[in-house]
Amino acid sequence: MTALVVVICLALAIMAQRFVYNRFWNRNLNVEMSFSEKTAAEGSTVVLREVLSNAKILPLPWVAVKFQVSKYLEFVDRSNSKITDDYYRNDLFSVMMYQKITRRLPFVCAKRGYYTVKSLEVVSGNILMNAKFADRFDCRAALTVYPSPVPLDGLEAVFTRLLGSVLTKRFIHPDPFEFKGIREYQPYDSFRSINFKATAKTGGLMVNVNDYTVSQQVILMLNFDRYQDWLHEDLDEQAIRLAAALAERFVTEGVPVRFITNGADVITGRASELPEGSGAGHLANIFELLARIDLKKDPALFSNILAGTALAHKAEPLYLLISTYHKKDLTDAFAELEGLGAQSMWVLPFAHDTFVEIPAAMENKIVRWEAGV
Questions:
Q1: CATH code (residue 87)
Q2: 58 is a domain residue
Q3: What strands lie across the sheet with 119-125, from one edge to the other?
Q4: Do 73 and 133 have their domain in common?
Q5: In whole angstroms, what is the distance from residue 291 CA to residue 231 CA?
Q6: 258 and 340 share a domain?
Q7: Domain containing residue 194
Q8: Reduced to 3 states, what is the DSSP secondary structure of residue 26?
């Protein structure tokens, strides 16, 4: 009889613990994933923080935290993981009552992009390990990896010429809000520039002298039109790094830059555009858009974008196009810029040992750049 009671009690205990764990295992259990940085550059090291907390009296003898991220985040510790089209990791924990465990997983940003934790699942069991439970957790961790600007080897002369053109026009339009000084009146001065207070003091006509502002912007355009279904991802990535380098150089020189691309944004799914701007904040915004370009999505037709941009701005800006695609629809649209009297230049990246044929009429406007891929 005693043995029967023991067996019954044991069976009841097993059922009870199974019931308790089944009902309460994930109560006050929380898993958080976060990146140590919001933005990083290609080649830099970032840390993914994995935090597991169990804020209840019920211990969890084993907890498996499974998550999936891009394979372009190259983790230093590759144990408990596998890499196929993505990086899959399965970390095992033992978490007691009211315990919090934090793990730091460093990785190298191997490629520019916008990265999230794609899935986060937790699997656990009871004390006797005769039952398994699973739950999914939301994760909003995101990391933007900026492209690494390429050296402007072979393009320094072109950049210097473009920059010289922009800086020459820097001194055409005076800024009425930037006061520089007072001087004597000259026949070409406008009536509005006369300083009557200074004129009364000196007895001769005196005018205000205003400082000058940058009157010309650069419209930096990045095109991803394709030849049928052909996708040369390495070459396109180099084009993105070139755009980053040129934007950085112009902004460093104080030249306002407007950025346009037909590359689909990984978040919005649409082509991207940034209005004219300058300074470190504006450059960071350009780099962020470059990071979020999804080359696997079909781009918008760039000749239409180019035509609309030209009509809107007429001949004021300097147009700088980066495009590996150079079929007739685009060369015709680009040639229309000259018809408007606009300054324009086209940088055409190409792979080593690749022949690039350019229409004779465009030879003075298109600069070939070997992208080193």
A1: 2.60.40.680
A2: yes
A3: 81-83, 87-95, 60-69, 119-125, 132-136
A4: yes
A5: 18
A6: yes
A7: 174-212
A8: coil
